[in-house]
Amino acid sequence: MTVTLLVGGKAIIGGTLTLGVLATFAGYQFQLLWPRVAIGWVISIAQRGVACMGLLAEILDAKPYCDDARAVPNGALIEGRIEARRG
User: Fold this and answer.
1) pTM for the full model?
2) Residue 26: which residues within 8 A CB-CB, separation 6 or more?
3) Cα(2)–Cα(68) distance, rounded to whole angstroms?
């Protein structure tokens, strides 16, 4: 915006540009300011999402530390008592 005002101001002084054209162009730049900020924000969120998905994939692909050979088969009932003592 500063460059636009400097170059536009010199062009107005030089007589090659009118104040109305400079004001219109500056208005268009202001109107485009929010979409540029919004696009940057969306790109930032997308990059964070990709990084988090990589971490989640690493967690989900990890092998468990337990031994499946000693696991109880599906449907098998475990019988017995559990006792908790303070001590």
Assistant:
1) 0.48
2) 1, 4, 5, 8
3) 67
